[in-house]
Design a protein that fits this description.
Layout: E1 5-12, H1 15-27, E2 33-46, E3 49-63, H2 67-77, E4 85-90, H3 95-103, H4 113-122
Antiparallel strand pairs: 1-3, 1-4, 2-3
Helix pairs in contact: 1-4
Length: 123
Amino acid sequence: MRSGHILVHVTTRSPEEAEALGAAAVAQRLAASAQIEPITTSHYRWKGAIHAHPEHRVTLFSRAALWDAIVAFVRANHSYELPQIVATPISLGLPEFLSWIDENTSALEQGSDEVQEARDDID
């Protein structure tokens, strides 16, 4: 059973970037909520070299229908050349919680003060 809801996981290099991305995604109603997890260490291969860096994880609670908009938003506002943007489907969830996600990820007028404040935080 699929609920049509997703958890989107994004890592950032700083807590400030994680907070700004999470807050802006919620303000723009791309996510109903954003959870910021402090430092994790990522080990990865990039351009032929192995790296290990501290990162911060942002988890966005959203709807699968917003995936393309979330990817575009993160790519436009992320400091990495190739950001980690992956989604996990929410196959089951408390129906009232899933309805809350739906209610809080509806269209928001792009000119609102709330959206502008979120964009200012990222810039």
